[in-house]
Amino acid sequence: MKTVKKLICILSLAFCLASSAAPSLISNNIVSEASAKTYNSTTIANVQKKLNKRGYNCGSTDGAVGKRTKAAIKSFQKKKGLKVTGAINKPLLKALNVKETVPSKSSNSNEYIVYVTDTGEKYHRSGCRYLSRSRHPIPLSSARYTYEPCSVCRP
């Protein structure tokens, strides 16, 4: 009978410890994609320029977040002890000493904006079905040099 009571005590203690630790473990690993801020192409290009100068290979400074840029951001975040997300965020901008640029109303206000996805292979119109999971705005003039047009929405 004493053995059963000890076993029950041990199991209940283990359950209490596991349930109190689980919420913090779960909440640290969940990143909300919907709350992630999208930065303009000038800010992204400035981040790419700074990462390239520091030896993290982003590729060209095109103002679009592609595979290389994400990998470089992750490496930088890991080395600097930041939360590794692979995305541009306030702590990354601060660590790189990059100011977020806000486009002025007068410059290129009538330039057509298209969107690229996280895979960063093609550019799309605003309503394209491939933009359901991710979308990053980029001027059409820049997109034509780096990406292929989507065959579905034909921007």
Give me the secondary-structure topology.
Elements: H1 2-29, H2 41-53, H3 67-80, H4 90-96, E1 113-116, E2 122-124, E3 136-139, H5 140-146, E4 148-149
Parallel strand pairs: 2-4
Antiparallel strand pairs: 1-2, 1-3
Uncertain runs are 21-35
Average residue-wise pLDDT: 77
Number of helices: 5
**Structural class computed from helices and strand pairing:** alpha+beta
How much helix, percentage-wise, in residues? 40-55%
Q: Please tell me what the overall shape is.
A: elongated
Secondary structure tally: strands: 4
What fraction strand?
5-15%
Largest sheet: 4 strands, mixed
Q: Can you list the strand order of the major beta sheet? A: 3-1-2-4
Question: Taking Cα atoms only, what radius of gyration do you get, to the nearest Å?
Answer: 22 Å
Order of helices and strands: HHHHEEEHE
Distance between the termini: 76 Å
